[in-house]
Amino acid sequence: MKESQTLSRWLIKARANAKGWRTAMFVFLILLVILNIFILPHHPHVEEEKIPGFWAAFGFFGAVIMAFVLKKLVFPVISRKEEFYERD
After folding, report:
1. Are 29 and 56 in contact (CB under 8 A)?
2. Taking the domains of the chain in order of start, what are their residue ranges?
3. How far apart are CA 25 and CA 23, in angstroms?
4. What is the DSSP string of 1-18?
């Protein structure tokens, strides 16, 4: 069996169980935030690093801000009308 066929089968199975993968990832992320309460960095580079879950919150809010910027500011600039490429 070819390696690409094996990968293809695995991806099909993974996609069929997407809800399970999503749940596993959220559980893992929550576990990391909980562990951050008990395991703190020895030499934080910034004061905020001392706050448990800071990097998780930073990443979440960063993603939300990027999504907002892309949707509200960038999308209108790069979008074209449906007929833009049609020639008369």
Report:
1. yes
2. 3-78
3. 5
4. --HHHHHHHHHHHHHHTH
